[in-house]
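=== RUN LOG ===
request id: a7f3
mode: sequence -> structure
chains: 1
length: 268
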Amino acid sequence: MAHSFRTIGLLRFSVLTPTYFSERFASLEETAAHLFSPERMALRFNLFENLCLPSLVNQSDTGFDLLVLTAESMPEDYLQRLADLIEPHDHIHLRPVGTGKHYPLLREAYNSVPVDGVTHRIMFRLDDDDAVDTDFIRRTKRLANGLFHLHDDPPPTIIAYNRGFYVRTGEGEAEVFDACERAPLSTGVTLIAPVDHNTNPYRYVHRKFPQHYNTYSDISVPAFVRTVHGDNKSNPAQIGLTHKMKPAQIDAQLRHHFNLSIDRLKAL
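=== RESULT ===
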């Protein structure tokens, strides 16, 4: 039978749920106070507007749907600002949700995109403070099609993009450096699966994907920019090779693959 794909991405923008951040805050009210504090919102909007969203809007292939999952209870001025950023882009959809359990909200969001007439979904995830390269969608579709032909009955398969750049802030000037990871990252990680397959790339801790799915690691080009700052939920450790490139080489690859520069990233 001929196969066909629907490409769907999802990112979370300050989703309020009792099963996310529960290890840090004792109540939903405490979580909301953290999520929607003016300082945190300023940081998140800055990174989303200047890094994450442009990387999705400027894709060489815009044949995909992206869901931006956020909280219905987000203060109205922030919710309207987010809606205004997304409104010009037909393939990007704002999805405000209530305070249900975290993973079911993600699953319902992926399932909300119609898949009539296709056999498989290409599902990717991205955080609102990170970016993918401008050829990410086109390359992912090409890899998905190629991986599909490796098996008579293709199993759910992960594509992990393990080469890219980090921007790390701290005392003094921000640092931009290269990395090539040896385990799957969350940034842009993709699950290819039949339309009736009921999991998505948020189902497992991304570092553990190879013990749950066939996993293909692509390091052909730098595919991600990941930011490390004071509001990361997880501890973004680098597990693999880092700091192998000189600043001029990094700058050239950022310009070619992301339409960015070291100076612009440091300014974030």
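=== NOTES ===
The two ends are 48 Å apart (CA to CA).
DSSP finds seven helices and twelve strands in the chain.
=== END ===
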